[in-house]
Amino acid sequence: MEIPKKYRSRQAEITESFLRVMHAHMDDFMAGRAPEMLHLKDLAGVLCLHPVHVSTIVKLHTGFHPCHFYELRIAEEAKALLADASLAVGEVAGRLTYDTSNFTKFFKLYVGMTPTAYRRSLSLSAPALLPAHGKPQLRLAA
């Protein structure tokens, strides 16, 4: 039996609302305007919906649990923070409310490599540097 169209459009509406609220919260968290990361139940509360309902609807509509989208966003923020070589991996983990060990496992699961390997890959793919004499010089990783 197929789901009626009016229910499918409500699924899309709830999913879009969840993603909008989640991204706005992550923007606030990363900018320091939110003191902690919210849980799914808190994000559902902002929508005035039960967390189980939000979870069920988002999964029906996308095929993924809402936490999947939250974790993808955290992985993107982690990649951005890791691009700053002045931040230690442990500091990046702490900013994202992880301990270093769990952050490394999380990052490897979502990005496919450890934070250190990701950082190394950034330095290998960096554009050529121009020295004072104006000729390009490749930067090699140690």
TrEMBL record:
Q: Which InterPro entries match?
A: Homeodomain-like_sf, HTH_AraC
Sorted alphabetically, the keyword list is: DNA-binding, Transcription, Transcription regulation
Taking every annotated instance into account, which residue ranges of this chain make up the domain HTH araC/xylS-type?
16-121
Residues in the signal sequence: none
Q: Could you tell me which SMART domains the record lists for this protein?
A: HTH_ARAC (SM00342)
- Give yes or no: UniProt keyword DNA-binding: yes
UniProt KW Transport keyword: no
Which superkingdom, per the lineage? Answer: Bacteria
Q: What is this protein called?
A: HTH araC/xylS-type domain-containing protein
Organism from which the protein derives: Hymenobacter ginsengisoli
